[in-house]
Amino acid sequence: MSVESVEDRAAFFDPDEFGSAATYAKAAGGSAALNGLFTNPSTSVELGPVATIDSNPSFLCRSADIPAGAVGGSGGDTLTIDAVIYQVLELRPDGTGMTRIELGR
Description:
The model has no long low-confidence stretch (mean pLDDT 88). Helix content is 5%, strand content 50%. The chain is mainly β. The chain contains 1 helix and 8 strands.
């Protein structure tokens, strides 16, 4: 059980501080505004003379803010951050009221 409330968690994601604003769009219709922490780490892999860079973007937000009926994987939902549209690959709730949204392009 978490000690903080849903309102307490909102302070971590304020776009005026260190959070990011996003729009979650369900393939079935409807959308919701979310605030969260966007991360986009990249990994460089060299295979002989060929180098590739891969990124693993994700968005951490309050589970309560994710719209009802949201699905990851092949469901077709998207998340737009700074005018960039990402595919929602997976929703990973952590059991404490937070969800990491795994993203792809």
